[in-house]
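Practice set, problem 2.
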Amino acid sequence: MQQKKVRVLVLRAAGINCDAEMVTAWEKAGAEVDLKHINEIAGPQANTNLDDYSILGIPGGFSYGDNLGAGKLLANELIFRLKEPFSRFVESGRPVLGVCNGFQILAKTGVFGDMTLLPNESGKFECRWTSLQNTGSNSIFLRGIDQIYLPVAHGEGRVAFGDGAKAEVSLKYCDPDGNTQAAYPWNPNGSVSNAGGVSNASGTVIGMMPHPERFVSAWQHPNWTRQKTKEVEGAGLKFFKNAVDYAGREL
C-alpha cells in the first residue's frame, strides 16, 4: 500500500515573497504542498480547513508592508480570524515553521510568550550568510543538525525576551569555529544570547531568522563552484525532511 503523503500548508498574504522557495523546499522533502492566501483559510471566502494539514509553514517577506510592525497584521489575522484552529494546530503537536517574517508573525501571535524581534543593532538591513549552532534543543526540525551555514536577510531580527517568555533558544549565531558568543557580523542583528532561532517547549514550533529554504540545493551555497563535493542537497533541506518524517509517523 502506498504511504500517504504529508500535507503542508504554506501561508501567504500581501507582501510575503519567499513563498515559492518554501513550497519548493517542502516538495523536495517529499510533502504534498498547498500555497494558500489567508483569505482562503479564514473568513467568508474560506475554502480550506487548517485541520486538514499536518504541517504549517509561514514564509518570509514583508507581510502587509510590515505596517504597524514586522509581521503584526498577519499575526493579528491568525489571532482574531483563526484563533481556534491555529491554537488547536499548535497544541496538537503538529510542526510549525516560521522563517524571517514568518518568525516575526509567530512571535506576535504569542506562541513563544513574551518575546519579540526588534530592529537590528546595526540600524540597517543585513543580508549575508552566517553560521548557527544547535544548542542541544529538542526541536524536531533540528534532529541531526549540529552546525549549519545559512543566509539571513532582514532589518528586524534582534531577538528580545521578556519575563514571560516561553521560548527555548534552539539555534545560536556562531563563528566558523562554533563560538556562540561571536559578535557582529556573525550575530547579524544583536540578538540576546546570539539567538537565531527559538522553539516552543515541545519542540514542534520553531521560529528562525535565517532562511533554510534558500539552501536546499548545494548549488545555492555561495562557494559552490570552489567546493569539491558530490553533495546535491543543501544543508537547509534537513529542516524540512525532519518535519516531514516526524509528521509522517503521525499519519
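Problem 2, part (b): a different protein.
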Amino acid sequence: MRNVTKENITEVFKSYMDKDMAPRTREIMSALVQHLHDFARETNLTHEEWRQGIAFLEGCAAIESDGRHEFVLASDVLGLSSLVDMLHSSSKSTSSSVLGPFHVSGAPALPVGGDMKRDFGGPVLLAEGVIRDTNGDPIPNAELDIWQTAPNGLYASQDDEQDTFSFHGLMTVGADGAYAFTTVKPVEYTVPSDGPVGDILRACGRHPWRPSHLHYIVKAPGYRTLVTEIFPDDDPYLDHDTVFGVREDLVMTYVEKPASAFPDGLELSGKVQEPFLHVKFDVVLSPEA
C-alpha cells in the first residue's frame, strides 16, 4: 500500500495480516491496533509523548527481574489486571483479585493449624474457614497457597532480611474442607514507586498504597482455580486501593479475643499470652466449565 494516510492506516494494518492466522490472534491484534491508533488520533499524540511512552516501556524492561515484575505492576496500577480478573470471575464463587508481582512458587508445606508468624513481632492473627463448593458443601483435599507481607510491609522477595519463603505456606485441607493458620496481622504497604510505575502514579496525583490483606490461591480437582485476596474492614486504604483489588465479598472483620480464648489443636495453642485477632472467611470455588 503506497497511499497510507492517518485515516486508513488502521485498515491497512489489518489488510497486512495473513488470512490463515489464528482467529483469536486476528481478533486481539485487530482490536489492539484499532484502539491504539484511535488513541493516537484522539489525543493528537506528539513525537515527544510517543518517546515518553517508549521510554516507559524500556524503563520497565530495564528493572524486570525474578524479584521485581514492573510490567505486572504497571498492569495492576492501570486497573488492567483487576479488569481481566473481573471479566473472567464466576458470579457464584468467591471473587478473584490480583495475583500481584510478589508471589513465590514452591512454598513449604503448612499443616492445617500451622504457624507462619514464627519469631516476628506484631499481633497474632488466627485465620480459619472452610473451602466450599457453590452448593455450600466442603471440598476435601483442596490446596491453599497463602502469602503476605511481613510487619515491615515487605514481601520476602523484596527483603534480603527475610527467608525466601517467609510468610508463605502451602496447605492441603482435610475431608472437612477446613483450613486454619496463625500469622502476624498484615499491614498496609506501598507498591514499589522508584521505577517507571511510580512516575505514572505521581503524574496522575495518585498514592502507591495498598490496604493490608492476605493472598490466597485455592485449587481443587474439578474446580476453577481461584486467585484472590482478603481485606480487613478497618483498613484506611480499603476504598482507595492503588491496584483496584478490593471486592465487597473479600472484606472481612478481625475480632479481638483474649489469650484464654485461643483454641486447642493449633501449633500456637498454649503459647499465646496476649489478646489475638480472629477472622473466619469461607472460600467458594466454582466447578470447571
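Answer key, part (b): The helical segments are 9-16, 23-43, 47-63, 70-77, 80-87, 196-203. The chain has a mean pLDDT of 96.
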